[in-house]
Amino acid sequence: PQPRFNAARTAFNPFADTLSPAKVSHLLLKWRMPDFSFSPVAANSLLYQAGQGGRSYVALSLNTRAVRWRFIPGGFIELSPTVGPRFVYAPVPAALYALDPQTGQPEWSFFPPRHAVVSGTPVVAGAVVIVPVCPPEGNGPKAVARSCSLYALSASTGRKLRVYGDPDGVTPAISKGTLYLTSRGTVRAIRLATGRRTWTFT
Description:
By secondary structure, the protein is mainly β. 4% of the residues lie in helices and 43% in strands. The protein has 2 helices and 17 strands. β16 and β17 (197-201) form a beta hairpin. The longest helix is centred in the first third of the chain and has 4 residues, at 21-24. The strands form 4 sheets. Strands 9, 10, 11, 12 and 13 form a 5-stranded antiparallel β-sheet that branches. A 4-stranded antiparallel β-sheet has the order 1-2-3-4, with no helix packed on it. Strands 5-6-7-8 form a 4-stranded antiparallel β-sheet, with no helix packed on it.
């Protein structure tokens, strides 16, 4: 589970047809939790969410809202987490943390190069997690020359596998082993396994 439902970022939930007016017409508020921001992700009977005004990641019980764990990354949270088969991937500008989904303990971390930040929500596709990295936004000539990259990391260890250069710093879509990204108004299709460009569209 990840923002926009899947790695292809289709925002389509194939289970949505299990809902109907008859089933939702009598919905009542079950619980409420204040001071949370960004899109939550539900998995493993837990709700993973940025809390405390963007200062921590929190796992809540879906049924009771009880806090299972809280992880404080030491930086302001600006993005939603992504849940993969083994870890919860928790981004902050200075790092990406792979957290144990049941305990919140960090298993590995990725730090972008100097003078760069994690700029988009990570995408998990099989054994790979894709992380957008950009120079910090700002004013003046440096902002105009901003150039970003996508880092392909091992989803289990965080080891750098490949770097795709010069996208616009947005979260890409992944489908059937192909990475689709936008760069300077051009859409590129790149094979994840080889890094080979298969087509472009301008």
